[in-house]
Amino acid sequence: MRTPLLPLQQLLDSLQHPPHPEDPAAYETASFMHRRSLAAIEDITMAFDDCLAMGISESTIRRYVSICQEKITTLCNDVPFSWLEVETAAPVEYDEWRYLCNDICHQLENLIFYLMVTYAKYYNKMAITPNVYRELMRQRIAPGLSVIRNWFRETDDGSRELQQMILELYDAFDPQLTNRMNYYQLDFLRELQQALLKHWSMEDNTLDHGTLQQLLFTLNFNSTDYYHYCTSYISQQLMELPDIHTQLDLLSFINKTLSQLPVRPGLAYSYDAPSIISLLKEWLLVEAKHLQTKRKQKGAGHASKLKTLPENFKLHTSLTLPELAAFFRVLKEAGVVENRNMQDVFRLISLCFSIDKKEAFEGNLFQSYYYHVAPETYKKMEDLAHNMVRKTFQLRKEE
Fold this sequence. Notes:
Blueprint: H1 5-14, H2 26-53, H3 58-78, H4 96-118, H5 131-153, H6 160-169, H7 183-200, H8 209-219, H9 224-239, H10 244-260, H11 276-296, H12 301-306, E1 315-317, H13 321-333, H14 342-352, E2 353-355, H15 363-371, H16 375-398
Parallel strand pairs: 1-2
Helix pairs in contact: 1-2, 2-4, 3-4, 5-7, 9-11, 10-11, 13-15, 13-16
């Protein structure tokens, strides 16, 4: 039985010696490379079909898909950008060999689609998209994006900040920028563009702030920036209300509205994060509880106690920044920290803690250490846990 790995290697080998524009034999080189690469791509798909027909184990299929994804991504990132169609106002004259190279790029994209759709549960869509895949998608959405930019210029100024946030998302397609876009984000941006164009094509295509927000909620635009935008926007509305009672009414109304919105299943800008609606509902709950407590308070006793703290008060710790991040990661995994939105926790920690080591307490660095704990840091957490158990036992004996 053949496996996909042999034709995969043949595909990699076929593109090792691309044609040079100045080479008189460029067409012959491109033609040979084109035939070999397309034959290898076809053999890869046929080999996968054979594996399924033979009942190969899921773990083996998963390994084949993972290897193919990794190798094809590297291959696509090494493809000369000149092989791809470049936008220009004038007609582009391509040599015949360039057409062949361009077709190879499209065939590689088709292979990616095949693996991603046929073996969806094995394909890692959290991985960064190949450059060829991103560029071909950029070319497809560019005309529609131009329409959206012009449409936004003609719409209500009250949505300008939100419109700008949306347009900046599409800067990720810029070929001059390092590609950091995963498959889920690319899918989201494609669906967002289609939804905006659908609304633009309506007879009454007025795009006010509420309509645009509802669209982003429905598509689950759950980026950190949009979350902060929404909470800041609601906070500003609360400040304009005369009393706590009407503020609570507004929070209740927003919560009810969010609960009734239809959400597109399986779609998210940040696929591994909670939905924007669940994040906002949690924030609304916290704000409502705060207002209810504030309404019940008779005096400012609690506030006066807080004012006795020194200015810029920090809780000092002997832990390093990686160790502190690992400590809170353990607290979160153990259920001690119950907050779902860890971004707020990260900000609170940076405000309240200082470390004795001469290392800058940067929020982004702390977050990176939180999600990527080194083995040696885990070992230090184990030692800390043992010390805490011993200290607890000692204190109990002293009581």
